[in-house]
C-alpha cells in the first residue's frame, strides 16, 4: 500500500501491541529483542515530533509465566494475580528501555468505570494531555488487577480505540499476529485475501472478522479489531492493522509504504464516545 506524504504528517499516534506479539511463539517467554526494537521505533516517532501513546497488553501472559502457570488462567482472581505480577514486570522493562533512549515513559491503567464516570474520564483526558505536553509517553493497559466483567473493556483493541478517541489522536496502529483484515480467517480458509484499504467501513467487513484468536494469549480476535476500527473511524482517526512480527513496520507505516489494512477515518458527528461506553454500538 502506498500512502506517501500522508501518514508522516500525523500529529498524535496510538500504537497497540498484543500479548502474542511480545513473546516468543515457541515457549511464551518475553521477546526482549523485539521489545527493545519496539521502544526504539516509538522513540523515533517521538523524534519525528509526534505525540506517542503505547497500549501494551501482556500483563496476564507475563505474570502467568512468572508464577509458573502452564494453562491460560480462567478464574478471575487468578487472572488478577497474574496481572498484578506481570504489569509491574512489563513496566520495569519498558521504563528501562525508554530511558536508554532518553525518553520518559509513564503508566495509565484504566477500567470501563474510568470512562463511564464523568470526573474520572475528564481526569484521564487531562492526564493524557499533560503527559503529551511534557513529551512523556503514556503506556496504557486495562487495570486487570481490579477489573471484573462489569467494568471490563474486554480487550485492548477496544481500549486503544477508546484512548484514540479520548485523546483526539489522528492515527491508531494495531500490531497483530497477522498482516491485517482478510476476507475470512486465513487460519481456517486458505483462499482468504488481504484487504488493503477500507474507505467506508460497512457491515460486510464486520462479518469477515471472526472472534477466534490466533494464540493462547490473545483476546477478541479480528472481531475486536473491527470494533476498534468503528470507534476510531467514527472519531475521525485513521486506523491500520499490521503484523507486529517485525515492529520495524512502524516506520514503514509512517513513511507510507507497508503491508496491512488501512481504515480511513471519517468523523461521524452522531458518534458519542460516552454513549458508546454505556450502550455499545
Ligand atoms: N477475517 C480475518 N482476517 C484476519 N484474521 C482473522 C480474521 N478472522 C479471524 N482472524 C483471526 O484473528 C487473529 C488475530 O486476533 P488476536 O489473536 O486477538 O490478535 P493479537 O493477539 O495479535 O491482538 C488472527 O490470528 C486470525 O486467526
Ligand atoms: N489487559 C490484558 C490483555 C487483554 C488483551 O486484549 O490482550 P491481547 O489480545 O493480547 O491484546 C493483559 O495485559 O494481559
Q: Write down the CATH topology.
A: Carbamate kinase
Q: Helicity level, as a percent range?
A: 40-55%
- Please give the number of β-strands: 8
CATH architecture label name: 3-Layer(aba) Sandwich
Report the oligomer: single chain
Range of strand content:
5-15%
Give the overall silhouette: globular
Can you tag this structure with a few keywords?
transferase; binds adenosine-5'-diphosphate; 11 helices; alpha/beta; EC 2.7.2.11; 8-stranded mixed sheet; single chain; Carbamate kinase; ATP-binding
Description of the molecule:
- The protein has helices spanning 19-22, 32-47, 59-67, 76-100, 112-116, 118-133, 156-166, 203-208, 221-235, 249-254, 273-279; strands at 12-17, 51-56, 105-110, 137-142, 171-176, 197-198, 238-243, 261-263.
- It has 281 residues and is α/β, with parallel strands linked by helices.
- It has a single domain, classed as Carbamate kinase, CATH 3.40.1160.
- Strands 3-4-2-1-5-7-8-6 form an eight-stranded mixed sheet, sandwiched between helices.
- 43% of the residues are buried.
- The structure holds adenosine-5'-diphosphate and the ligand N[C@@H](CCC(=O)OP(=O)(O)O)C(=O)O.
- Residues 18-21, 176-178, 181-182, 184-187, 208-210, 212-215, 218-222 line the site of adenosine-5'-diphosphate.
